[in-house]
Each structure stands twice: as structure tokens, then as C-alpha cells.
Amino acid sequence: MTPTANNSKQTTNASPKLILIFTLIEVIVAIAILSLAIAVTMEMSASAAKRSKKALAAWKHRHMLQQALEYYLLQGPDADIPNEFFPYEGFHSECLVETPEQLTDEIESEKGYWRIVKLTVSIKTDDEKTADSISFWKILPANR
């Protein structure tokens, strides 16, 4: 570069400096993109937390149901579960014994000292809403 009359301070061996100047629109667009990325990340985190809470509640209900089911299988459907075995506040279990209606003519519901029954174990809240339940067939002594 050669010195000119208008700019006498420039020399021929001076290195050019790169100066970046962003316009207001470029800054606004960058902020908008960053805001969208933050909003999407926050929404994903919130939905993941909600799904995690729902999965934890479902696991808790299944765990309670499994404990009650094991107790009724070992002690019989008429047993009362002690608080030491089922220590969940706000919940209780019940076991309903039903006579099967779906048996074919070849199958008798009671034979000798045994009978086949349908057991339904339920976990209920204190206001009697069913949290979880499971039904299965079991052979019991006829005197129960």
C-alpha cells in the first residue's frame, strides 16, 4: 500500500486488521436461535422429569402388588397382611375369590377336596380407587 494524501498515517508495511462488525439484525437472529435452543432443551427436560415421575409411580404400584400377591399366595386369600409386610401409607390390598364361570363342561370347578378359583389381588388407595390389580387362577382346598 502506498501512502495517500488523504491518509498519511498508513505505511506500506502495516498489516491490515480484520474488524468484524455485526449488524443489529444478525445479533437479533443469533439471540432468537439461542432462545429457541434453550426453550427446546427446557421442554425436553420437563417432559423427561414427568415421564420419570410417572414411571416411578407405576413401579411403586407394581412392587406393592407383587408384595401383596406373594403374601396371599403363601398365606391364603383370607389372610390379613400385617403392616410390617405391607408398610405403605395411603394404600391397602385386598384379595377377591371368585368362582370361575368360563370353564367348559368337561372341567368341574370342584373335585373332591380341591376347587379352582379366580383370585384378584388389588392395591387400592384409602379412598378405594384401584391403583393396580392382577387376576389369576389357583387351586385351593375345597373348605376355603
What does this structure look like?
By secondary structure, the chain is an alpha+beta fold. It has one domain (24-141). It has 1 helix and 4 strands; from the N terminus they run αββββ. Strands 1, 2, 3 and 4 form a 4-stranded antiparallel sheet that branches. The protein starts with 23 loop residues before the first helix and ends with a strand.
Which terms summarize this structure?
single chain, 144 residues
* Classification by helices and strands: alpha+beta
Low-pLDDT segments, ≥5 res: none
Question: Based on the structure, what is the oligomeric state of the protein chains?
Answer: single chain
The total number of structural domains is 1
For the record, give the distance between the C-alpha atoms at the N and C termini, rounded to a whole number: 108 Å
Strand content: 15-25%
Elements, N to C (H/E): HEEEE
Helix content: 25-40%
Number of helices: 1
Radius of gyration: 37 Å
- What is the approximate shape? rod-shaped
Q: Largest beta sheet, briefly?
A: 4 strands, antiparallel
Mean pLDDT level: 85
**What is the β-strand count?**
4
